[in-house]
Amino acid sequence: MRRNQVAVVGAAESTELGVIPNMSQLQLHADAALNAIADAGLKLSDIDGFATAVETPQQVCHYLGIKPTWVDGTSVGGCSFMLHVRHAAAAIEAGLCKTVLITHAESGKSMIGKAPRSIPADSLQGQFEAPFGVYGPPSMFPIPVLRFMKTYGVTHEQLASVAVVQREWAAKNPRAMMKDPITVADVLNSRMIAYPFRLLQCCLVTDGGGALILTSADRAKDFPRKPVYIKGTGESVETPMVSQMETFNSSRAFKVAGPLAFKEAGIAHRDVDHLMIYDAFAHLPLFGLGDLGFMPYEETGKFIADGNTRPGGKLPLNTNGGGLSYMHSGMYGMYALQESVRQMRGIAPAQVQNAKISVCHGVGGMFAASGTIVFTNER
Amino acid sequence: MAEPQRARPKPTPETQHFWDGTKAGELRLQRCDACAHVYFPPRPFCPSCASRKVSVFKASGKGFLYSYVINHRPAAPGFTPPYAIAVVELAEGPRMMSNIIDCPQTPEALELDMKLEVAFEKLDDKITLPVFRPAKG
């Protein structure tokens, strides 16, 4: 795909984040969509392309009253929205549509109008994983961690520091769920969830939504907000079964999607001013830093523990507080994208000064899928 | 009210040989007749070279502990926490999720790379699960 031909011209989260028992999941989609439409200064009738995950495009389009000529229902977990951005950019460039709305919403905490996740007994996961006691992401996502720690010499303290540093970012963000400072000792003394991970190393469970609007870069200059250009993109999938990953020392999906986006954007790692790595659990930033090629895996834990990703550090990472402290509805990718867009617009609560390139890396369905977007505010 | 039950696998035509094997006290894997690749989970073709000529064989049942979590909460129905959810690397190459028996469910007792051997846990007349215990000797 060609660089900087498509831009984000509308971006918004749901009016509230956190615990929203008075709104169904479908209405959260609409709330976020209407906020993004207002942000872009558009009308719903201007939208001719639509993408969403979990809920079907037909469900959300009908609810909103949108008549699209292009839809994408890619649903590969929490990074689905990174893939939607990539697909939408390609569709706009190909002339299939002009103005794409991407919505996410999840009543992850209140479970209003949300179907419970289940594993069919005759699926491969139902036959070869569920019988051994996996029960939700906390029992599955951290399964590779002990192997990763042994291979690369990563310590429990380093993995605890991920949560500590992200809480520092969250403290600067009025919309973050958790803002009180924590220490490595606090993390290591918090309630055990699935060894080696404790409560403060696991993501929040919240309600919320978010929406993005994309159009061609040529049209983007006529919109009220500063355009944020799509400079590079990547995507891949590996396996829905965490036990069947090629290795626990890295993520194949990360290693495909990340470098693809860097290559397409034509950037080097030193060019990255701002970085988001989807942190459903504390090990993901370490996998991301290694798999995206920022540094050898052996250095990832120390890099974070030494403060390089904290406010004022040389590589600002997860500057909204992340899934660990900002919010995590279940499919956090949309909120990572929103923070990258805010940083590129220059309006983030914890703004990285003069940031020109933001990399936003997502994961989906344990390590099943991945999507990476490189944003810039310079065409 | 009945006790909540552990999740029961429901075999499909492609996986039936595996579950017939565990019921007979065998851990069965598949090998490609064309390229010799050994793979899991079951399917009637080779995921490495796409050949449909594949054979089922009885695996050694030997392996080592590749990684695990010790799950505290929430516990799956039929499980009493804390319990380890392990991934075992088999001597033949493939990895599979399982549980570790005859071993304390603690970080001290569960050492990565420890040698394991298969055992079989009968759930009911249809399903027997492959589990692993520390290898003797």
TrEMBL record, chain A:
Name by which UniProt lists this protein: Thiolase
Molecular-function GO terms, alphabetical: acetyl-CoA C-acyltransferase activity
Pfam families tied to this protein: Thiolase_C_1
Domain spans labelled Thiolase C-terminal: 234-376
Residues spanning the signal sequence: none
From TrEMBL, chain B:
Keyword DNA-binding: yes
Every ChsH2 rubredoxin-like zinc ribbon domain range: 19-54
UniProt entry tagged with the keyword Glycoprotein: no
Domain ChsH2 C-terminal OB-fold: 59-121
This protein's UniProt keywords: DNA-binding
GO molecular function annotation: DNA binding
Record protein name field: DNA-binding protein
Species per Swiss-Prot/TrEMBL record: Bradyrhizobium neotropicale
